[in-house]
Amino acid sequence: MTAELEGRVAVVTGTAQGIGRAIAERLAARGANVHRVDRDTVDLSDSGAVEEFFASIGDVDILVNNAGGVGGQTHTPIDELTDSLWSAVIDANLTTAMNCTRAGVRSMKARGFGRIVMISSGAGRSVSLTGIQAYTTAKAAQIGFTRQMAHELGPFGVTVNCIAPGFVLSNPTTLAQWESYGEEGQRALLERIATRKTGTPDDIARGVEFFVSPEAGWISGQVLSIDGGHSLF
């Protein structure tokens, strides 16, 4: 790999495993100085903690809002859904992205350069396979947030793009989901994917690598589905 990100400072959230870890490793391999953030280092839903973290690291060139997930939730019928279940998923996916963007963009605007990538989900463009209402809602909102931020921040030299991953076997939650389908369910899922295979964390990391590269300097406000062609159907 070439060191085309040499000297760039990157923040990647949700790096404890899976997609976030792969993104951090790929950006580091390209020469970026990567700050890895997960729930054990900073509570990203706490705006004060986020502001303190970004102040401690100084200027930021690249921000990848990957933190999220469902926090162990499974489908709950909407008429039984509690406020706490809803808020937990919204905070983990949407509030974290807003907090980090708000804090990180200050130095980007001041220096006239920045690259922000949101990691949404195919659920944000369609429906959640697990039926978690707040997850679909938060991931769809990330797409809207991407477009609004691209419009607002473009004049300051900051691009904002989004990746909507398909089914990626990336952590214990997705592995358990895959196993729960059984052989027939797995076959049915693969038949809805044009390439007939699930994705890997590195598939998503390569998309991030492109969005933050010099080659993508005139691309902003876009949503890229990396899903093996699942969104075709």
Can you tag this structure with a few keywords?
single chain, 233 residues, alpha/beta, Rossmann fold, 6-stranded parallel beta sheet, 44% helix
Level-1 CATH class name: Alpha Beta
CATH superfamily, called what? NAD(P)-binding Rossmann-like Domain
Shape: globular
Distance between the termini: 35 Å
Number of DSSP E strands: 6
CATH architecture: 3-Layer(aba) Sandwich
Portion of residues within helices: 40-55%
Strand order of the largest sheet: 2-1-3-4-5-6
Q: Classify the beta-strand content into a percent band.
A: 5-15%
Tally of alpha and pi helices:
7
Uncertain parts: none
CATH topology: Rossmann fold
Radius of gyration: 17 Å
Structural class, from helix and strand content?
A: alpha/beta
List the domain count as a whole number: 1
Q: Largest sheet at a glance?
A: 6 strands, parallel
Summarize this, please?
It is built from 7 helices and 6 strands, in the order E-H-E-H-E-H-E-H-E-H-H-H-E. The protein has 233 residues and is an alpha/beta fold. The chain has one domain (9-170, 201-226): NAD(P)-binding Rossmann-like Domain (Rossmann fold, 3-Layer(aba) Sandwich), CATH 3.40.50.
How would you portray this structure in words?
This protein is α/β, with parallel strands linked by helices and 233 residues long. It has one domain (9-170, 201-226): 3-Layer(aba) Sandwich (Rossmann fold). The protein is built from seven helices and six strands, in the order E-H-E-H-E-H-E-H-E-H-H-H-E. The protein has helices spanning 18-29, 47-57, 83-111, 133-153, 172-180, 182-191, 201-211, and strands at residues 9-13, 33-37, 62-65, 114-119, 158-165, 223-226. The chain has a six-stranded parallel beta sheet, sandwiched between helices. Helix 1 links the parallel strand 1 (9-13) and strand 2. Helix 2 runs parallel beside helix 3 (83-111). The longest helix is centred in the middle third of the chain and has 29 residues, at 83-111. The protein is globular. The model has no long low-confidence stretch (mean pLDDT 95).
